[in-house]
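Exercise 3.2. Students should predict the tertiary structure of the chain below and write it as structure tokens, then compare their answer with the key that follows.

Predict this chain's 3D structure.
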Amino acid sequence: MPFRLFQRGNQTPRYIQELGEFLPGAIMVMLVVYCLRNVTWLSGNHGWPDLTACTITILVHLKWRSLFASMIIGTTAYILMVNFVF
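Answer key:
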């Protein structure tokens, strides 16, 4: 069906182009909320590994603009903090 709607001769509708600009950021926000939903802020380590890993991920992404590097370094930082620091 999409191949019939968006053939090479037809121009992509404006609302589809706007969705392409809006959805990546919205999906990332949903993933962050999903990942942080079960963090216990008032007991244990108070979510410090989670917040620190999120901060590291954001800083790495702002510096290098690489999704792969951000994911790998942020995940590695979280795993190391959970296993060795907290």
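Discussion points: The longest helix spans residues 14-36. Residues 42 and 48 are 11 Å apart (CA to CA).
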